[in-house]
Amino acid sequence: MNITRITTCMVDVPILRELMITSSLGTHTATKITLLRLETDAGITGVGEATVAPKWSGETAWGAREIIDRYLAPAVMGRAVSDIPGALAAMDQIAVLNPFAKSAIEMAMLDAWGKAEGKPVYDLLGGAVRDTAIPIRFSLAALAPEVTAANAARRVAWGHRTVKVKVGLDPHADVARVRAVREAIGPDIRLTVDANGGWSVEDAVWALQEMRPLNLLLAEQPVRREDLDGMAAVRRRVDVPVMVDEGVFTLWDAEQALKKEACDIISVYPGKNGGITLSKAIAEMAAEKGVACAVGSNLELDPGTAAMCHLTVATANIDADRYHGDILGTLYHAQSIVKNPVRLEAGVAHCPTTPGLGVEMDWDVVERLAI
Questions:
Q1: pTM for the full model?
Q2: 124-350 CATH, one of 3.30.1490.110, 3.20.20.120, 1.10.10.10, 3.30.2060.10
Q3: Rounded to whole angstroms, what are the CA distances from 63 to 32, 50, 60, 84, 109?
């Protein structure tokens, strides 16, 4: 079954006002992404999502659409949907970087392949290694301490057993915010922080030492993404596990982070890593060094959310029980673009078990949200 056509469109999906994420990178008010539809000579279609964010990966919806239409789609045209390695190699030969755009094509290929085989994507990846009910955490904006604390209490009441607090702005305000959240959620809920690279090494060390009584599960990307030496320095000087996120996009990045001992945990997810299979490969590399992985997020819509679920279910070194994943994007959006949304309830994401990604696009809604 071969690829015969790939078409793209862009959508603008608003974020619920009360859940807008404010971090060291600014405030996320809407999600502008590129969707693609892949057609085959068997009449089976697949869908992919490029969950781009210019301040995060440098990609935009307009750029993703252009590079898919002009370069990436022609590079994979006529290829069997099951030839994922060949497609990834062909795309890398014609364009460097652009992981979210490449991931959208791989996602659609896996979706179509799964439908043809009558299997969910996790079976194409080697089969389920855990239950399809995946614990998830919730990410809280860097707002005033009392506001963030109240939001945290609401999410815990909904069912989350882990919450993440955005930090990386002002270290003193960051400490006050995290302290207020811990007081609001009590001692038994897992608590993590994410600086998105906003701290210096010295600020990170000071802030994390001040937060020591708060019993943090992990500290995510405390310093700039390119500063693996700084990450390693923070890790040596604090007693909270350090997660690398922005610092690992590629297999090469992961190799360097592991070599420099810059992290205790690696955040992986399909868009950032250029595909589901590449996320899985990073997790397998990390397993050889005894470093666990967790699933991160760029506030995906349903196709991207489903892809993250399948990756988690099929990857042993994603320690989903200890490090609850960021499979949460659809909770933040005011509109679903599918007829059967991925079920997120009581702090759990339920991986679809039907063939392919397991989501059915609502193209009428997509048309209304089109840019």
A1: 0.96
A2: 3.20.20.120
A3: 11, 10, 5, 23, 21
